[in-house]
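Intended use. Records like the one below are meant for learning the mapping from a protein sequence to its folded structure. Do not use them to infer anything beyond what is encoded.
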Amino acid sequence: MPTSSFRAIAILLPLYVCHAFGLTAANAADGPPNIVFFLVDDMGWSDPNCYGNSFHETPNINRLAKQGMRFTNAYAACPVCSPTRASIMTGKYPATLNLTDFIPGHWRPWEKLVVPKMNLALPHAEITFAEALAQGGYVSGSFGKWHLGGSTHNPDSQGFDEFVVTGGRHFAPNFRFTAQPQLKGDDRPREREYLGEFLTRRAERFMSDHRDERFVLYLSHYAVHIPLEAKQKLVEKYEKKQPKPAGRINNPTYAAMVEHIDQSLGRIVQTLDELKLADNTLLIFFSDNGGLLKRFDGKGTEVMLNTPLRAEKGTLYEGGIREPLIARWPGKIAAGSECTEVVSSVDFVPTMIDVAGLKKKVTHNVDGVSLLPLLTQSSSIDRDAIFWHYPHYHHTSPAGAVRSGDYKLIEYFDDGRLELYNLTKDIGETKNLADKMPEKAKTMHAKLVTWRKSVGARMPTKNADYDPEKSHLWKRRPRPTPKKK
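Structure written out for the chain above:
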């Protein structure tokens, strides 16, 4: 067993794989685990205390890391939300799905390149983890942000048994329900209830209702996404807090939003304990992309810095794609363990299928690999590289990237320039090695090109309307014109 990728302070129990999928109250504690996927929106890699932030207070995230495995080289498959969420749902790269920007996306009509057309919803033909796990008897719930299509592409169209889709703002009555079943009684938002608390409450209800079944819960927060909104008492706490560490933007409202997320996680863990489900539940904590410094157009308040990582959401630098990832599964994942292997959001679906004992039953193709060998420290994973394809204008120009071992290469499509970094020695990506290591750059670029061809990645094209004086202007992506009947 490789030791370089792990540091553990506990002894692993043997992995028990169950091949029986029928469940009753009597055997609910046996067999494959429940799965809780806790997703944060726009949380940076270094936002939690256990990833280096000393201003934010995240005791529950810290505790989860002490109880499970903390990954240090985990990545979102895209630096913006919808593509990463699609990869979490399907186990496929955004380029494979032709869903490579947030929906509906935006563009610069007078820039050098015309960005490619993409799917504006997750295609129904794609198999989500809800649909895959249903073959093992799992009941599924999705609560919170979806952002994978309009009214005909809600969670129920992709296999989820229960769902609520929310977004917009962070306090009732201002947050909106873009998709929901009929809300009754205590399922309705309370006066001035914080969105994160409402979603947590609904998730707790789901776990309680299905305590005697096998379930998969997708709790998808809108926090810590702008607009910056948090409870005033918590904001005031951070306004008074000293000292404020240098090298960061210590925004009190953002810090309060991070703590709101931490409180939600604490409630989910507490509910699992109260329902006596914790010992047979795999809990995954993750973020959909890196943290945001400022809006893509440069307007608004400075939100945060991804120190020591470079840049932010919407870029293929580490600040846009490296994410906090913690997994807890008592008795299977060693408490206090750490994994330095490079992993991606495309790996979650094959991991869920594996831990559910469904590898032989669910055989559709995915781009990711199961992380179960890493979680149980039984072996490494067999993969040479992971990839990104972001052919859109956002905080930088259209680009692609590949990470293999210690090295990451970024290719910019507007001028063909290459940037090569040794992330082990230079996590902040300050030294471009492309000129010093031309053969390494050439080899990695060839891998990136080969991968793009293998998944049918769509590339931007030259813009006949390019105008340098207007190239900075933004517009919403044109929507397809409905066909006349």
